[in-house]
Amino acid sequence: MIGVVVLGSTGSVGENTLDVLARHPDRFRLVAIGANRNVAKLAEQIRRWRPAYAALADETAARELTEMLGAAPQTRILAGESSLVEIAALPEADCVMAAIVGGAGLRSTLAAARAGKRLLLANKESLVMAGPLLIEAVRSAGAVLLPIDSEHNAIFQCLPPNARVGSAPPGVRRVLLTASGGPFRDWTREALETATPEAACAHPNWVMGRKISVDSATLMNKVSSSSRPACSSAASGADRSCRSSAEHRALGRGVLDGSVLAQLGSPDMRTPIAHALAWPSESPPV
Ligand code: NDP
Hints:
- By secondary structure, the protein is of the alpha/beta class.
- The chain is built from 13 helices and 11 strands.
- It has 2 domains: about 160 residues, NAD(P)-binding Rossmann-like Domain (Rossmann fold, 3-Layer(aba) Sandwich), CATH 3.40.50.720; about 110 residues, no CATH class.
């Protein structure tokens, strides 16, 4: 049984992770969950999963959660930003899903790396902000860094087996990232002047959290994905268009012999999540 901690369990990636775990109770055991202040959803997850620990960054929300749950002796409720760091390094956890959005995810992501965990990294912002620090922490603690972001996971699946974090993968000339164009693909420049956050979040292919949806609509997400620390030292981003996103995660590995390897799939985050949870074994069905 692989012990799993899910940081950001109330978010889109977090819930998809729990969905994959729920389909494979014989392989995975949920040890702890953590979020910011969504008391109602965390309470629901605690009742369903009975994890040993649940952490909320917001201390007022954590008190509210404790009151709401009454006696739930199987789950210890922890409060404050440091509680996320604490659950990221629990000895009973083999695997940590880092799915807290934005800069708030950095400390707990680093903690999981320093504790030598198998780190499932959805929070690519950590790499963009502190790539060298994170890679060094992974290296020195002997942690394993596995990419969850769909582009990075697709690249990872196309890389040769002897590729290592932080070094140029042998035989790879360039990495191609594809883009669907998102909700604004066919909008005129004039129409874009009146775009709303709701329109930005209505991605035609992906159901995601609001921040990454907006980042996808503005293509800022591609900038993060192709940033040098995030995309490995071999990557030189060159976008290709694929409206359906079937090829969104199809990344060419422009290998030196001239061939291109691609990973194709439906736009469903459970695919990269299941792949990384099971790696190096075969992905479980989702
Ligand atoms: P959501 O907005 O859906 O969820 C964000 C999660 O982070 C929630 O659990 C939220 O808790 C928690 N959180 C927010 N602020 C804090 C804080 N200050 N302290 C602790 N926890 C906090 O985001 P997504 O699931 O969409 O994205 C998560 C990460 O995965 C991001 O880094 C994103 O770039 C990346 N990603 C997402 C993809 C997707 O399909 N959604 C695809 C690829 C990458 P609460 O609910 O309590 O506020």
